[in-house]
Amino acid sequence: MKSFMTKMRNFLREEDGVTAIEYGLIAALIGVAIVVAVTAVGTELNTTFNTVVARLAAAN
């Protein structure tokens, strides 16, 4: 039977969980970047459409 200290050392050396957490954080960061980019594009697109509508109304 392994001693408590041996089990604790093995637990602290284990890196599989750390890698999974890192990948999760990277995926979350990519998700946030996508949301920010889509929001910015949506705002710009809304402004463009409003400009087009205003110019069409003025042309009539």
Q: Give the mean pLDDT.
A: 89
Globular, elongated, flat, extended or rod-shaped: what is the shape?
rod-shaped
Topology as a string of helices (H) and strands (E): HH
Helix content: over 70%
How many beta strands in the DSSP annotation?
A: 0
Beta strand %: under 5%
Structural summary, described in words:
The chain has helices spanning 4-13, 16-59. The mean pLDDT is 89. The radius of gyration is 26 Å and the shape is rod-shaped. The protein has 60 residues and is mostly helical.
Please supply descriptive tags for the structure shown above.
single chain, 60 residues, mainly alpha, 90% helix
Show the helix and strand layout.
Blueprint (H helix, E strand, L loop, with lengths): L3 H10 L2 H44 L1
